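Narrative of activities, Objective 1.

The group set out to show that a structural description can be obtained from nothing but a protein's sequence at a throughput compatible with the screening campaign. Below is one input-output pair from the validation batch, recorded exactly as produced.
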Amino acid sequence: IDDVRTEESFQFWGETTYIRGWMGAPLIGRGKIVGFLTADSRQTGAYGKREQQIMQAFANQAAIAIENARLYEAERSARETAVILRKASMELAESRELDSMLARLLTILAELVDYDSANVMLLENKTLVHKAVRGYERWTDVQQLVDIHFDIEPSEILEDVLRELGLPIPN
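Output recorded for this entry:
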């Protein structure tokens, strides 16, 4: 854009009213727009076709680098999660005392998933019973929560989920 002040659709934000010349280029990675690269100038007509071509070529290379960094980050995160899961599996398998094992389970869950509160409910005679809770003390009396039980009646949705997971449907 030679002069952004002649473009009604251009949006100034914060203290950017100094901008006169502007150009942008999409960051395209794997055939999808992953972002946008822009350049601003205090001068009108600061950018021409040559600068736009250079910027787009650079944006193309930058998009590849961004995608590679994202893939690396995803791989690193997946490796960290795998390490935690492997460690958790060993720790939980070694635990012999149910209450301490369930408490440890919630600690490990916090390493995997950011939560404000979490609980473990176990099925006892078609009733889900709270066996371990964490984080609820900020909002409620934990004992009241522990005393809440949920009756599980066979339902179409529950049966569909169990079938999908390949698990037996309780009678």
